[in-house]
Amino acid sequence: NAGVTQTPKFRVLKTGQSMTLLCAQDMNHEYMYWYRQDPGMGLRLIHYSVGEGTTAKGEVPDGYNVSRLKKQNFLLGLESAAPSQTSVYFCASSYTPIDSAGELFFGEGSRLTVL
Amino acid sequence: GQNIDQPTEMTATEGAIVQINCTYQTSGFNGLFWYQQHAGEAPTFLSYNVLDGLEEKGRFSSFLSRSKGYSYLLLKELQMKDSASYLCACMDSNYQLIWGAGTKLIIKP
């Protein structure tokens, strides 16, 4: 079972470059999330989606954009990368909303370095 | 502000018992999660508590005291594979998840 798949796994960018992280899930989940994980800090929510065609801002949305054109895919874009965006990015999905104690299923992470 | 506190690192011996504490200060409370994350891997769900008391799942148990803003994860019969980070996350009144920085558990033979 693939579950939640993220591509690419690793990427090095120069300041000002753009890129897109792709998240794909095969569990038919409605809810999808993008988090970043930095040393010494908890996971922080960037953007999330409650269904195909919908997106919403999380705790740290600045500098990122997202799209959910298909239910199974959730894309995270960086239009002009900055060194502060160096992080490990995790995509997650859930069958039910978090507010009904929905378990999150995470991808394996994408390690992004911005020079 | 909202805050989740857990120890940064703990060490325990194979076969022993370890308790990982988590204290939280959030605007409202709608449940608390524990996740396990092996180094370089994805977090995986361990438990969810919304009512006071102990929830047991095999070798792992999770306890919640809402009045004290406190939870712990209890791991029994420790195995080397339990070496991982354990993440505590609290859901506030807006159903937003607030995550702790995680506790790195090192198991020694």
Rg calc of chain B: 13 Å
The major pleated sheet of chain B works out as:
6 strands, mixed
Structural class designation of chain A = mainly beta
Find the biggest chain interface: A-B, 20 and 23 residues
Q: How widely separated are the two ends of chain B?
A: 40 Å
Shape of chain A: globular
Percent range for β-strand residues of chain A: over 45%
Oligomeric state, counting identical vs distinct chains: heterodimer
Radius of gyration of chain A: 13 Å
Structural class of chain B: mainly beta
Report the principal-axis shape of chain B: globular
What percentage of amino acids of chain B are in beta strands?
Answer: over 45%
Give structural notes.
The complex is a heterodimer of chains A (115) and B (109). With 115 residues, chain A is mainly β. The model of chain A has no long low-confidence stretch (mean pLDDT 94). Chain B is globular. In chain B, a hairpin with a 5-residue loop joins strand 9 and strand 10. Chain B contains no helices and 11 strands.
Index terms:
heterodimer, A: 115 residues, mainly beta, seven-stranded mixed β-sheet, four-stranded antiparallel β-sheet, globular, B: 109 residues, six-stranded mixed β-sheet, five-stranded antiparallel β-sheet, 0% helix
List the helices and strands and how they pair.
The complex is a heterodimer of chains A (115) and B (109).
Chain A (H helix, E strand, L loop, with lengths): L3 E4 L2 E4 L5 E7 L5 E7 L6 E6 L6 E2 L6 E4 L5 E6 L8 E8 L10 E2 L3 E5 L1
Parallel strand pairs in A: 2-11
Antiparallel strand pairs in A: 1-3, 3-8, 4-5, 4-9, 5-6, 7-8, 9-10, 9-11
Chain B lengths: L2 E3 L3 E5 L4 E8 L6 E6 L6 E6 L3 E5 L2 E6 L4 E6 L8 E8 L5 E3 L3 E6 L1
Parallel strand pairs in B: 2-11
Antiparallel strand pairs in B: 1-3, 3-8, 4-5, 4-9, 6-7, 7-8, 9-10, 9-11
Summarize the structure in short.
Chain A has 115 residues and is an all-beta fold.
